[in-house]
Every structure is written in C-alpha cells, then in structure tokens.
Design brief:
Family: Belongs to the F420H(2)-dependent quinone reductase family.
CATH class: Mainly Beta
GO cellular component, one term: plasma membrane
GO molecular function: coenzyme F420 binding; oxidoreductase activity
Organism: Acrocarpospora phusangensis
Number of helices: 4
Shape: globular
Number of strands: 8
InterPro entries: F420H2_quin_Rdtase, Split_barrel_FMN-bd
Amino acid sequence: MLFGAEHVRKYLETDGQEGHEWQGTTAALLTNRGRRSGKPHITPLIYQPYGDKYLVVASKGGSPTPPEWYLNLQANPDAELQILGERFKVRAHTATPDEKPDMWRVMTAAWPAYDEYQTKTDREIPVVVLERV
C-alpha cells in the first residue's frame, strides 16, 4: 500500500484532491472483498488509464508473495474503483502474455520502480486490467 489508512482517509474525505497525485504519479482507490472474510477492503494503488480500461500492478514492492488485494481479486474479480470523486464498478483480470508487454511499459513509465521490483523476485509481477461494468 502507499500511505495505508491515512492515504485512504484523505482521499475519501477530499474526493481525491488529496491523494490522487502521489510522488509524481496518480493513485486510485480499489475496493474489493476479502476472499475469506467477505469484508470490503480499500487499497490506494498507482493506476494508469489504458484506452477505456485502467491498469494497476500487483507488485508488493517485489515481494515473493502477491499483495492481498490481488489474491482477493483472483477469488472475486468484481470490485469498485475510485478516481478523484468518481466511483464505479469494475471487473478485474490479469493481463495475458499478449497484453502484458505494452501494459507493463505504460505502468513503468508511470512508476519506473516496477522494473526494479521485478528484479527482486522470481514471481512474475502481474498487471491487472480493470474494466468498467
């Protein structure tokens, strides 16, 4: 996560006026349900638009294990995305091998550290595609 609970709180309170711009890139809030608990979780994530879709990266800083939000999306791909004051429903899928190269370039242009994160782990870091439903 980026700033964790404080980032989420400020983003929600200000409709993204605080928290959308983050360290030279942009952040959105992803709300999805826990795969075991069923409870909603809100996670700030770096995102980029990609045509009529949105991209996020399940990097966890190059950890050998994927982030919880990604595991939750694998169990239930229906979620909500908030960009600034706009909230909308999305369905997630992991970028296919054909989709990923261009999408990875888009995301590393937004956050170059993703390339470094990939060198830290044997796990292939996924790009997640979020489509409006």
